[in-house]
């Protein structure tokens, strides 16, 4: 959820994708007795972070080590 909030507030695309990845891992490791509301809210928050960051800036995500095209 921390990655989701960072992706949502700071518009960091990589943070939003890491949040979705962590949500998937959390779902895979969950048990039947675990709280499904928390897992569902984690998924929804990470998906909303991805959607909001791409609505703000629809350019593809570039890795930090890639050369920039700004001359």
* Average pLDDT, all residues: 85
Uncertain residue segments: none
Bulk shape: elongated
Number of β-strand runs: 0
Main sheet makeup = none
Global Rg: 14 Å
Oligomer: single chain
Note the total helix count.
3
Give the helix level as a range of percent: 55-70%
Portion in beta strands? under 5%
Strand-and-helix sequence, N→C? Answer: HHH
Q: Calculate the terminal CA-CA distance, rounded to whole Å.
A: 37 Å
Structural class: mainly alpha
GO molecular function: protein folding chaperone
GO cellular component, one term: endoplasmic reticulum membrane
Keywords: Membrane, Signal, Transmembrane, Transmembrane helix
Protein name: Protein Asterix
Any overview of this molecule?
With about 70 residues, the chain is mainly α. Helices cover about 65% and strands about 0% of the residues. It is built from three helices and no strands. It has helices spanning about 1-10, 15-30, 35-55. α2 packs antiparallel against α3. The radius of gyration is 14 Å and the shape is elongated. It starts with a helix and ends in a 15-residue tail after the last helix. The mean pLDDT is about 85. It holds the Pfam family ASTER. This is Protein Asterix. Keywords: Membrane, Signal, Transmembrane, Transmembrane helix.
């Amino acid at each position: 959820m921390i990655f989701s909030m960072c992706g949502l507030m700071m518009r960091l695309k990589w943070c939003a994708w890491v949040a979705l990845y962590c949500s998937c891992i959390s779902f895979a490791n969950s048990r039947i007795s675990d709280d499904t509301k928390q897992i569902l809210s984690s998924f929804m928050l990470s998906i909303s972070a991805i959607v909001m960051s791409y609505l703000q800036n629809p350019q593809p995500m570039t890795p930090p080590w890639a050369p920039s095209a700004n001359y």
